[in-house]
Amino acid sequence: MSIDNHAGSSSPPGAGRAGRPRDPAVQRQILEAAYEIVREGGYAALSMEGVAGRAGVSKQSVYRRWSSRGDLLVDLYMGTAEQQDAPPEGQTFKARFESYLQWSVHRLFDPSRANMLRALATEGQADPAVRQALLSRIVEPRLALGRDIILRGQQTGEVRADLDVDIALDFLFGSVWFSLLVTGRPLNEAWQERSLSAFFLLTT
Fold first, then answer.
1. Which residues form the HTH tetR-type domain (predicted)?
2. From CA 120, how far away is CA 73, in angstroms rounded?
3. Residue 88 lies in a domain
């Protein structure tokens, strides 16, 4: 597993991040411990006390960085895989969008990471701070980039001029959430190929 040392360095969803500078080694240690707990027992097994015990740090060290287990899970999801800041550029709309979709969902090909995102969506229904973190750090950046790629395709004539861009993206990512939260169908390369084929029929 790869944990990004910068996970948790962006704007926090909770109030547990203020205070003295954080030791990156301790932060990584905590994230590694949290990942092992989630991998072994799922999100239900994750607790701040359990993470502190597994990491060999004080409970205060965990709460100093994350205000809740949902807050911690956002950083855990964002930091459990190496990821490019942006997808590779392509020469055509279809090539760009294929790279974009791969960049957006590749973590979910790993069932353990899919479970993390599923847990975040569930936790976000009860915790507004987790919901805001999910939207601002995971959902909205992907939608914004997808919107830019489609608008660029419209400008070059590769995408239908009358396409409702936001609805098209809702159709695509609605399939992701429906698979995660309702059917439980795996998200994998076969899903990606089918989704791209359907999306291109809609948009081009």
1. 24-84
2. 7
3. no
